[in-house]
Each structure stands twice: as C-alpha cells, then as structure tokens.
Amino acid sequence: MSAIKEQDIIDSIADACQYISYFHPEDFVKSIVEAYENEQSEAAKNALGQILINSKMCALGHRPLCQDTGSVNIFVRVGLKADLEITKELVDVLNEGVAKGYTNPDNTLRYSVVSDPAGDRTNTKDNTPAVIHVSVDNSDEIDITVAAKGGGSENKSKFAVLNPSDSVYDWVMANVREMGAGWCPPGILGIGIGGNPEKSMLLAKESLMGHVDIHELKARGPQNALEELRLRLYTDINKIGIGAQGLGGLTTVVDVKILDYPCHAASLPVAMIPNCAATRHIHFKLKGGEGAAKFAKPDLSIWPDIELPLDSIKKVNIEDLTKENLSQFKSGDTLLLTGKILTARDAAHKKIVEYKNAGKPLPNGVDLKDRFIYYVGPVDPVRDEKVGPAGPTTSTRMDKFTKDMMEIGIMGMIGKAERKQPTIDLIKEYKSMYLIATGGAAYLISQSIKDAKVLAFEEMGMEAIYEFDVVDMPVTVAVDTEGVSIHTTGPAKWRTI
User: Fold this and answer.
1) Considering just the CA atoms, what is the radius of gyration of the chain in Å?
2) How many CA atoms lie within 13 A of 384 on its CB side?
C-alpha cells in the first residue's frame, strides 16, 4: 500500500485555502441566484445582485470573496489503516498547509489570527493556527473538510443549556431576531442539539459543511423530528423579514442545517452558528499514491449576468457634501460615492480617541473633520491592484467610539449591519449619516477604489488609517440625518410573523 506523503497533505490544504477564498460552493451560488430572482425588496435585491456580481468576479479573478478571509477550521478523519509518511505531528503538517495557502503571493489572503488572545493579541502573520478537529475511522484514507469562517458570523454564535421541556424552536427564533445583520445574511444557519456544551457547538459547526438541500427536503417532505424542525425554522426565519444585509426582504437564510447527539436526561444543550454570504468550505479525501487533492473549477454558467439598476441609484460627489446638505439623502437610498474617504477600524479608533483625550493631533497631519470614515481592513494588493478586496466590517464594534468621532467632526460613517440606538441618537443629534456597503462584495467594492495610501499607524497593517480615492462606490443609506434606520424600517415592512 502506498503512503500518503506529508507534502501532499500540505499542498492539499494550501490549495483548499486558496480555492475556497475565491470560489463559492456551487450549491450556495444556486441558492443565492434563486433568492435574487424571487426577491421583491429593491434594497435587498440590489444587495443580492452585488453579492452575485462579486462572486463571479472572484471566480474569474481568483481574489477573495471577502476581505475577512477568515480563520481556518479543519475537520480531519484519519483512517487507522492509512500509511502516513510524515515527519512531524499531523496538526503541524495541517498548519503548514494553512500558512502556505494564506501567504501565496499570487492571491494574498488576510491574516486575522492573533496569539495571546487575552493579552497582547499579536498577529501570527500567516493565519495559523487553524482550529483542527481530528477523529479516526477504519479506512485507509484521510477525509478532510477545510472551511474559512469570518469574524462577523462567528461572533453571532449562540449557546445555551435548555431545560428538557424547553422549545429549541423558540430559542432559535428568539436569537435570530436579536442577531441583527452583523453576520451578513443571507446565509446558512447551523444548529447542534445534544451531547454536552462542547459537543453541541461542534455539531453546529459541522452541520454548516453540508450541501444546501432544503428544497429537496421540502419537496419530499420531512421524515423525522429534526427535518420537521429544519423546515419550520427555514420558513419562519424568512418570515421575520431581516433579508439580505438586514435591509428587509424575503430571504434571510437559504438553508437551516441541524445535527444532534444523545445527551443527559436532565439537560438540552443547543448551539447555533451562522454562515455568512461568503460561505466557504470544501471536502476532499487523500489516498496513498494519488498525490495531492485536485479541485475542479465550477461551471461559470451558474452565475447569471447581472447589472445594477443604475437609474435608481444616485451618484454623489463626496467633495460636494456638507453637514447642511446631507439631509437630502433618506434611509434606504442607494448611492454611488466618488471622492476621498478615510478608513479606520477598532485599533485605529482606539488610537484616535487616545490622541483626542491627550490633546494631540494625529500623525502626519491627518484631519478627520468633515470626512467619511470607512470601517474596513483590506486584503493586501497583488499585481497592479491599488488595494485588495475591501469590504466593510461590522459597525457595532465602533459604537463605543462614535461620540468621540462626532465631537472631532466626522461627516459620516460607512460599514455594515445595524447600529445600536445610542449611536443612532448621536447620528441624529450631529446631523450625520451612516452608510452601509454590502458585506460579501469585497472584490466588487475594491474595483471602485482607484488609489489607496496609508496616512497613519502604518505599523498596524490592515488596521492603519488609509485614504481611499473611490469612484462609484456602491453604498446604501442605513441611518439618515433624522435617525431613521433601514435596519428597523426594512425588516418591519417585510415581517409576516
């Protein structure tokens, strides 16, 4: 029997990380196409259109679907009869593959993993270590699933130990209502039931690796209690009206996946983990003598040719905007921005506030007054790119800095998902504006960025303050100067439950 070689494992993991960075699973693409064709909400349909345009661009250009190229999750099942020709621990071999995949100069991926998580939180510079789950079976092969999970969706994970008499349906529905749009819907909801706390979380994550098959289930009908629960949750979650990017619409989830495991009679552990609009995973097997895994390119015909309805989109020159004329834009308006904007994420906001409190000007003469701040941590550019994929990060993380930023005099903010009510109140008080870019359309957005330069805090990498020169950057007014939020009014319009 031939051996499974160490280099074949490394190369397979590296190629898998690259592959899933720019290819959506075909079944997921088809589900988003169906959602786009059925959507009746104009704002949600525009967002779905951008997600599909971005997906096709990434498939053609081999660049990341999302600037958050995720932390890597690996499920590996090792056959006890497999002959492994490796010189180090299997976990180290797998992590070497991840590092090789994420540092590929032809398609650089963003490093998001930090070590000493409760301390210095130092970036590991190659996105390792992955979160690896190892099991065994009696085969002569290695069965591997590689997934990349972005922080926005992972941060919305939920867990509880319910009483045995409690309703899993009620618990899930209550949490979905509170989850907001920070996980970048539409996507897939994974649920794990039973076992114990860590087992139910693992089941929820594993469930997300399955195919989108809710319509097949609906067509043949449920055959057990779990399938009944899947269908009920899928139907009723979509009736809540959250919709694409939380803008209000018909599709919030394209599937609900559930795995269960026996548990103690006195408890009912249940976990919930969403997969975002940048769903990324692939499954493969390695056998001795067959070399590294080979991944087939998807059929490009599965992506429709979509053009955004430019007649309903307002073109806006940022240089013409003042605090006095922002009121012309209303919640729900779709805009194409042209001009110069600044970027800042968590670390930069913290630094800005520290400088403000110390009465010190920002480095290099950076002035935030009357500027739009884009919450983004872009991927490094390759070849002739000015910037790599540059989609928005979750805005609520910046809520605690908003008052300071308003006092400095910023004009507005660009991010993704809803803002908390105190932040909405500040936007209204300062007659500012909050815009959202589409999460899951990072490569599409980057094409509107014609120039990019670091202005301050260069040592912080993606967390630095950049100046972007944008042309026709697509955004939606999420909170207008009167404090009207599309994330409240949109879902309310489409809610039927």
Assistant:
1) 23
2) 3
pLDDT for the residue 385 = 94
Q: DSSP letter for 392, please.
A: B
Helices assigned H by DSSP within 103-159: 151-154
Give the pLDDT confidence score for residue 415 in this predicted structure: 98
Single pTM value for the model: 0.94
Q: What 3-state DSSP class applies to 361?
A: coil
Note if 283 is an active site residue.
Answer: no
pLDDT at 312 > cutoff 90? no
3-state secondary structure of 315: strand
Per-residue pLDDT, 461? 86
Query: Which residue from 122, 111, 234, 181 is spatially nearest to 438, judged by alpha carbons?
Result: 181
Q: Which residue, 260, 184, 181, 177, is CA-closest to 224?
A: 260
Q: What are phi and psi of 51, to 5 degrees?
A: -60, -40
In the chain, which residues fall in CATH 3.20.130.10? 310-494
Do 15 and 220 form a contact (C-beta atoms < 8 A)? no
Segments in 268-418 forming alpha helices (H):
346-357, 402-408
DSSP tag of 308: -
Distance from C-alpha of 53 to C-alpha of 61, rounded to nearest angstrom: 12
Best CA proximity match to 279, nearest among 152, 94, 97, 128: 152
Distance of CA 363 to the CA centre of its chain: 31
**Contact status, residue 275 vs residue 153, Cβ threshold 8 Å:** yes
What are the structure tokens assigned to 111, written together? Answer: 């490093």
Instruction: Give the dihedral sign, CA 91/296/443/149.
Output: negative
**Chain CA centroid to CA 238, Å:** 19
Q: What is the percent of the chain where pLDDT is above 70? A: 100
Choosing from 24, 281, 349, 487, which is the catalytic residue? Answer: 349
Half-sphere exposure of 98 (CA within 13 A, CB side): 29
Q: How far is CA 45 from the centre of its chain?
A: 18
Could you tell me if 336 and 447 are in contact, meaning their C-beta atoms sit under 8 angstroms apart?
A: no
Query: Structure tokens of 152?
Result: 């926005």
The secondary structure of the chain in percent helix, strand, coil, rounded to multiples of 5, reads 35, 25, 40
CB distance 49 to 59 below 8 Å: no
pLDDT at position 1: 67
Angle 42-61/6-22 helices, nearest 10 degrees?
Answer: 140
CA dihedral of residues 176, 268, 199, 137 (deg, nearest 10)? -120
Is the CB of residue 43 less than 8 Å from the CB of residue 494? no
Topology classification of domain 310-494: fumarase (3.20.130)
Question: Residue 392, preceding bond cis, omega within 30 degrees?
Answer: no
Phi, psi of 478 (to 5 degrees): -95, -40
Instruction: Give the Cα separation of 84 and 453 in Å (integer).
Output: 47
Assess contact for 257 and 171: CB atoms under 8 A.
Answer: no
Which region, left, alpha or beta, applies to residue 479 given φ > 0 means left and ψ of -120 to 50 means alpha?
beta
